[in-house]
Amino acid sequence: MNAPPGGPEAPPTPTRRRLLLATLLPPLVATAPAGAEGLPPVNGPVILTVSGAIRNTNRGDSAVFDREGLESLGLAGFTTSTPWFDGPQRFDGVPMTRLMEAVGAAGTTVTAIALNDYTTEIPTADFARYNVLLALRRNGAYMPVRDKGPLFIVYPYDSAPELRGQPYYGRSAWQLARLIVA
């Protein structure tokens, strides 16, 4: 039986509770502090740190990833020739566009820094234009540090003539450890 107008309300039914929660939750989520929304948890050794002009972080002002976390972003791959290996090679890894989306990147360049401190600047426009890959595997196997791993920024060099030379070979950082978005 319904209460008269201005009188006590009937106890909320399960349907009313769900409706009330659905009404209240979006504002709560919208006001949650920026942070690790959508970033995978880090359970193993960190192999990549992304910092700079990013919105999503999970360790201080950076986004850090272990191998499993990177793979959870979704993998893609291609086969291409490179100046560093004989014959065409199959590379599999995370599309750089997907990584930039995951960290909420807001810059126009990325500085890639390798384990040996090699540094190169890459325009973020390259990532979508050329389907650049953050490779974790070559020919089906994870790449060890002694063989350009654990991470290697790879362009599909065979897909466009301009990719077969500088500056694109110079942008292909291997033994990648850090990315700084600016």
Task: Supply database-style keywords.
single chain, Sulfite Oxidase, Chain A, domain 2, 23% helix, 10 strands, globular, five-stranded antiparallel sheet, alpha+beta, five-stranded mixed sheet, 182 residues
Topology:
Blueprint: H1 14-30, E1 48-52, E2 63-65, H2 67-72, E3 76-80, E4 89-95, H3 96-103, E5 109-114, E6 119-123, H4 125-130, E7 133-138, E8 141-142, E9 152-154, H5 168-171, E10 176-181
Parallel strand pairs: 1-10
Antiparallel strand pairs: 1-2, 3-4, 4-7, 5-6, 5-10, 7-8, 7-9
For the termini, the CA-CA separation is 63 Å
Helical stretch tally:
5
Helix amount: 10-25%
Q: What is the residue-averaged pLDDT? A: 86
Number of strands: 10
Enumerate the spans where pLDDT stays under 50 for 5 or more consecutive residues.
1-36
Would you identify the CATH architecture?
Alpha-Beta Complex
**Assigned CATH class:** Alpha Beta
Question: What's the order of the H and E elements?
Answer: HEEHEEHEEHEEEHE
* Radius of gyration over all CA atoms, rounded: 23 Å
- Looking at this structure, what is the CATH superfamily? Oxidoreductase, molybdopterin-binding domain
Shape: globular
What name is given to the CATH topology? Answer: Sulfite Oxidase, Chain A, domain 2
Fraction of residues in β-strands? 25-35%
The profile of the biggest β sheet is: 5 strands, mixed
Class inferred from helices and paired strands = alpha+beta
The domain tally reads 1
Strand order of the largest sheet: 2-1-10-5-6
